[in-house]
Amino acid sequence: xxxxxQEEWMQKKLSFADLRGADLTGAQxxxxxLTxADLTxADLTxADLTxADLTGATLPPGYTxxxxxxxxxxxxxxxxxxxxAEVATAWECHEWENCPMSVAFGVRDFYSxxxxxxxxxxxxxxxxxxxxxxxxx
Length: 137
Prior knowledge:
The chain has helices at residues 3-13, 65-78, 84-88, 100-105, 118-129. It is mostly helical.
C-alpha cells in the first residue's frame, strides 16, 4: 500500500474505532485520524503517532485527549515542583538534557524520574515527540 493509500485508509477507518485493549505496539499511525476512537487499555508502546488527530479519543488510561491536554499534561509538567512556564522553556527540544520532562523533574535521565511518574512521562514523551502537545501558555 502506498503512503497516500495508507493515509487515506487510516483517515477513513480509525475515527470512532473501538481499539480497546488492542496491541498497537510499533504501529505506524502517523497522520492517523483517531478522532473519537476508544484506545482504552490499548498498548501504544513505540507506536508512531506523528501528526495523528486524537480529538475526542479516549486514551489508554481512560480519559479523553482533551482531558489529557487540559489537566493531566499540565499537572505532570508541574509534578516535579517547577512551574508550567519553566517547563515550557524546553518545548522546542529533542534531547533529554532539555526535554520538558527533564526540566519538570530536574533530572539528568529518564530513570531518575520518580517511579510513580515513569508511565505518564513515557506517554508524554511519545505524544511530545509526535508533535501532538502544544506548548503551554
